[in-house]
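Long-time lurker, first post. I've been practising inverse folding by hand and with some scripts of my own, and I keep getting stuck on stretches where the structure tokens seem ambiguous. Below is the full token string for one chain I'm working on. Before anyone asks, I'm not after the true native sequence, just a reasonable design that respects the backbone. If someone could post their per-position residues I'd love to compare against what I wrote down in my notebook.
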């Protein structure tokens, strides 16, 4: 059986989602799959992962996602002619593919790479996203505890990301032969990855540990690398802190270090942390960083630092705990590989293979195959591009509940958030008239 899979991702560079796509395309081609990638991004050629030999990448910009661009996306996807469409990431543009594929036989998998809390906070109105998840055929999450906000569970699948296929988790780890290095492998992103927190933390303890160094590797995200270099200079750390560019030799760097520092504020599923644990490298991270805190187990395979994710002094204490206690480090290193053994490359590929087969079986019987006129209008209202600019902070459920009291005649099956969006349109807008008719209001 040959199955053609379209994968949509808003961004296309060297990051976690792109690494997942790399693993899927390279690993499943031998099982009869072909792949097409659709993205809004146009990165430099050297900033891309190698895909499977039969994979093709389409770079297209569909902003603003109005009726015209929705039709452009639909036309392109139909020319690509996939059997399945997968939407990957945590971005407002994830809604575009389900909207464009209404009325087609292509089943849709929505692959969420963050927690629902972070989606609501950073990316999109949760009510819109919840409605979008309801009209796709399958939802994918990275960890079991992420399923709690996905309904119904019967169409939600849990597939974690794999550690590097070159790592042998059964290999004996010996940290005693490694350098006194604290390693950080992440883009220089002040908002999510927080390298500035790590540098400040290291500055707190560096005078007590002159034989240790901090080595950072990553891409220059919004000039973050320049800012970190300036911070290192300002704190007089140039002799003990190395600010390096991105490296492709992640495993090689891990095999030199004794500690992986992971100061992120939030994550979906941290590939670097999983690679580190599989390599026998203890991880220091914040206990409030969801995603990491389900993989790093305090005192078992790493150290979870309690407190606010900006608290560099608390992070410094976590680092120093491992720097001082070699026996503790060695014990964590010994435990680490077994703690992530379920995230092997083979298990990852088997799970995606199974999900693709489930989705393929729904082709032509998918949820969006034959929407009626009311459902089509509802979809257009739901995914209208102007709604993307409405602040999620203005859309709390408490406010919506209060506003709902004004619409006593509203049909219960119409989500409360639709009422909020009535004021997006001009008085004579066709979608506004339809929505009012559905709601039973004047």
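-- Answer (accepted) --
I ran through it position by position. Result:
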């Amino acid at each position: 059986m040959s199955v053609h899979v379209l994968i949509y991702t808003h961004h296309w560079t060297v990051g976690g989602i792109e690494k997942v796509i790399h693993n899927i395309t390279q690993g499943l081609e031998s099982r009869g799959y072909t792949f097409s990638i659709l993205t809004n991004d146009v990165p430099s050629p050297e900033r891309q992962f190698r895909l499977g030999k039969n994979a093709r990448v389409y770079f297209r910009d569909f902003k603003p996602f109005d009726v015209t661009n929705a039709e452009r996306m639909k036309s392109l996807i139909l020319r690509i002619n996939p059997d399945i469409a997968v939407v990957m990431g945590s971005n407002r543009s994830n809604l575009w593919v389900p909207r464009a594929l209404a009325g087609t036989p292509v089943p849709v998998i929505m692959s969420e790479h963050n927690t629902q809390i972070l989606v609501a906070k950073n990316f999109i109105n949760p009510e819109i996203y919840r409605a979008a998840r309801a009209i796709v055929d399958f939802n994918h999450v990275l960890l079991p505890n992420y399923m709690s906000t996905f309904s119904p569970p019967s169409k939600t699948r849990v597939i974690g990301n794999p550690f590097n296929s070159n790592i042998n988790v059964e290999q004996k780890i010996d940290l005693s032969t490694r350098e006194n290095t604290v390693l950080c492998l992440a883009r220089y992103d002040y908002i999510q990855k927080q390298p500035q927190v790590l540098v400040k933390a290291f500055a707190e303890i560096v005078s007590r540990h002159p034989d240790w160094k901090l080595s950072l590797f990553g891409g220059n995200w919004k000039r973050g690398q320049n800012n970190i270099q300036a911070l290192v200079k300002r704190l007089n750390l140039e002799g003990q802190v190395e600010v390096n560019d991105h490296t492709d030799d992640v495993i090689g760097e891990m095999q030199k270090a004794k500690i992986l520092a992971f100061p992120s504020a939030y994550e979906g599923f941290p590939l670097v942390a999983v690679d580190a644990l599989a390599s026998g490298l203890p991880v220091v991270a914040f206990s409030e960083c969801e995603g990491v805190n389900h993989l790093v187990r305090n005192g078992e395979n790493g150290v979870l630092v309690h407190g606010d994710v900006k608290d560099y002094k608390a992070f410094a204490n976590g680092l120093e705990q491992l720097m001082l206690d070699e026996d503790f480090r060695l014990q964590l290193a010994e435990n680490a590989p077994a703690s992530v053994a379920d995230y092997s490359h083979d298990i990852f590929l088997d799970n995606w293979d199974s999900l693709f087969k489930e989705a393929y079986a729904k082709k032509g019987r998918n949820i969006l195959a034959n929407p009626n006129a009311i459902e089509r209008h509802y979809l257009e209202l739901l995914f209208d591009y102007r709604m993307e600019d409405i602040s999620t902070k203005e859309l709390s459920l408490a406010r919506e509940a209060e506003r709902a009291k004004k619409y006593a005649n509203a049909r219960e099956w119409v989500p409360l958030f639709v009422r909020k969006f009535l004021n997006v349109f001009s008085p004579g807008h066709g979608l506004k008239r339809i929505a009012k008719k559905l709601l039973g209001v004047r």
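A couple of notes from the structure itself: The longest helix spans residues 345-360. The chain is about 35% helix and 15% strand. Happy to go over any region you disagree with.
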